[in-house]
Amino acid sequence: MRILLAEDDHDLAQRLRPLLEQAGFVVDAFADGRAAEEHGQVEDVQAAIVDLGLPGLDGLSIIERWRGNGRTFPVLVLTARGRWHDKLAGFDAGADDYLTKPFQPDELVLRLRALIRRSTGHATPRLQCGPLQLDVNAGRFSLHGSELALSPQEFRLLGYFIHHVDTVISRERLGEHVFDSGFDPDSNALDVLLGRVRRKLDVDLIQTVRGQGWRLTAPA
After folding, report:
1. Any residues with CB less than 8 A from the CB of 76 and at least 6 apart, and which?
2. CA torsion through residues 81, 87, 91, 96, sign
3. What sections of the sequence does the record tag as coiled-coil (predicted)?
């Protein structure tokens, strides 16, 4: 799943990016507030992590502009400002959660996963589709109760599907949330990846919807 990271602390961003990628996310990172705000207005991201003290455009203004333009993806605020009125300002701007620096990296991942899970309509940390289950907190898939061995790209693909069960997902949308950058909808990379994942599932969970894309659905 693709997320937006707006953080101008280079060292922190360098630490967070591999952590988030290892947790199954495709990361679009920005150090400038205006670039981050523009990206969030037009790209299909599942969530955003936003530092308040960004150059160019501050984090509160970014969130306010997104919400003003109807962008509803969850936003997790990162900041060194720990006072209550600063947190209140973030929530008033439209933020969904707040994490004060310094923080534990694992907590950031857990909070982000929880935000995405709730934003896609899932109340519990275990997402189910037939015999396939994702433990969101642990970041682990199981099939018929046994852990499923997946590559990072396979995990991202199944992760996006299971957050959007019974929803038809187009080639372009799925590719953007699976591949790090430069996805070419005309290439066969996504088809190859889908073929690998389907072979690891012993039931027909991923259905092809001709002319539209694919859908993850439990067998009848």
Report:
1. 47, 48, 49, 50, 95, 96, 97, 98, 99, 108, 111, 112, 115
2. positive
3. none
Q: Which two tokens stand for residue 68?
A: 């003003």
What's the N-to-C CA distance of the chain in angstroms? 27
Q: CA–CA separation, 68 vs 119, rounded Å?
A: 18
Q: List pLDDT tens digits, range 145-203.
A: 999 999 999 999 999 999 999 999 999 999 999 997 777 777 899 999 999 999 999 88
The pTM of the full predicted model, rounded to 2 decimals, is: 0.88
Q: Which residues make beta-bridge pairs with 213?
A: 209
The residue type found at 133 is Q
What are the tokens at 168? 């038809």
